[in-house]
Design a protein that fits this description.
2 domains, mainly alpha, Growth Hormone, Chain: A, disordered C terminus, 394 residues, 16 helices
Length: 394
């Protein structure tokens, strides 16, 4: 066992978990923020978009910083600052101040997202076998833990600032403990490569397209699953809430299994199979007329989508002739665009053709991702390339 790689693996696990925990903490208190600031749904929606705007501004800058400084330094700085930025929404006193706080939170969160994925690629290379899916499973687990803790805190009427401050402090301690264990990027991986737009590798274009399609699908499922069950299938509030719950649970479970699946099938076949499984599951759910029978379809959709984004983000850091930071920033940035435009696109389409048919856009995106997977052959070769043997018991 290589103790340096083992320590870096566990350190990266902590990074993904804390990132998810902070995200879950914020999401769990959105209703409390809305009530405290007396915001209607429209104004709240606009303020939430500022977080996405911050992310889109930060992603390309983060990629360049990783290329210049290495993922360890950028991850260390962004993860520490991200803990402090959690407090900003709790300090907001009106809609503009909330939007400003969320812009900073989104920007620093995206910087940590890109840099910790770049660190995950370094660890995966050193380990010599797939592990990105487990990292992303820890993000999902952290998000569920943060949301669960937030629900417990909210039920006891604990204020936003004390809650956010306590969460920030706990996560900060966990991050500081593991920072020294992260891997330094090899000098050859941080040289700047500037490629003309027309010479960007085809596989990077394909990965970006897959990231756009899948994150659009994930965003649409997050925002519209409960609404579909409630409005189109006339489910009660409990069943409507269960739709996204079973989707998320299946996604988290299969992310833990994703590295085994990827090792068996390879990245290209895993993305293609997962996309087709997700399309089939959602098509099943949309064909059902009884809400209970739609739930298995949403679970299958979550299972199909689960492993794709870890593979896409990790694959962006393995494209030949492109630095890991630049590759991950590219696929992450384009993926974020899909995550942003997905929910409103479904909403606008539902006004024209009903929500049931509008969600067919998600089915189409999954099929498109399956088609784009044909260009991932070079990643299959990279995954099959022999690596130095490293034993790690995790």
């Amino acid at each position: 066992m290589n103790p340096n790689v083992s320590a870096a693996w566990w350190g990266t696990v902590v990074l993904f978990f804390t990132h998810g925990f902070i995200f879950g903490t914020w999401v769990s208190r959105i209703p409390a923020v809305q009530t405290a600031l007396r915001l209607n749904n429209g104004i709240l929606g606009l303020t939430l978009l500022s977080s996405a705007a911050g992310a889109l501004c930060a992603i390309p800058v983060t990629g360049r910083l990783i290329d210049r400084l290495g993922s360890k330094k950028v991850t260390s700085a962004s993860s520490v600052v991200f803990c402090f930025t959690l407090v900003l929404p709790g300090l907001a006193f009106n809609a503009p101040s909330l939007a400003a706080g969320l812009f900073v939170l989104g920007a620093i969160g995206a910087a940590m997202d890109v840099s910790m994925n770049a660190q995950g690629v370094e660890v995966e290379k050193a380990l010599g076998r797939p592990t990105m899916s487990r990292f992303h499973a820890m993000f999902s687990s952290g998000a569920m833990a943060g949301a669960g803790a937030g629900g417990w805190v909210a039920a006891r009427n604990i204020g936003l600032v004390p809650h956010f401050s306590a969460s920030a402090l706990i996560n900060l301690i966990a991050i500081v403990v593991i920072l020294s264990s992260l891997l330094e990027a090899h000098p050859s991986t941080v040289q700047q490569h500037r490629l003309p737009f027309n010479k960007i590798p085809r596989v990077l274009v394909a990965l970006s397209a897959i990231g756009f399609c899948i994150l659009l699908s994930e965003g649409a499922m997050a925002d519209w699953t409960a609404v579909y069950l409630r409005q189109s299938l006339h489910a009660g509030p409990g069943i409507a809430a269960e739709g996204y719950a079973v989707f998320s649970a299946a996604m988290a479970l299969f992310r833990f299994l994703g590295d085994l699946i990827t090792a068996r099938l390879g990245p290209r076949r895993t993305v293609r199979t997962g996309s087709l499984v997700a399309a089939t599951g959602l098509l099943w759910a949309l064909c059902m007329q009884v809400s209970v029978w739609a739930l298995p379809g949403f679970a299958v959709t979550g299972a199909g989508l689960s492993v794709i984004i870890p593979l896409v983000f990790g694959g962006g850091g393995k494209v030949e002739s492109v630095n890991p930071g630049a590759g991950i920033a590219t696929v992450t940035g384009i993926g974020y665009v899909g995550f942003i435009v997905g929910p409103p696109t479904i909403g606008f389409a539902s006004q024209l053709v009903t929500l049931r048919y509008a969600l067919g856009i998600v089915v189409a995106c999954c099929l498109a991702a399956a088609w784009f997977s044909r260009f991932m052959v070079s990643l299959d070769r990279t995954s099959a390339r022999p690596e130095p043997a490293t034993e790690l018991h995790v």
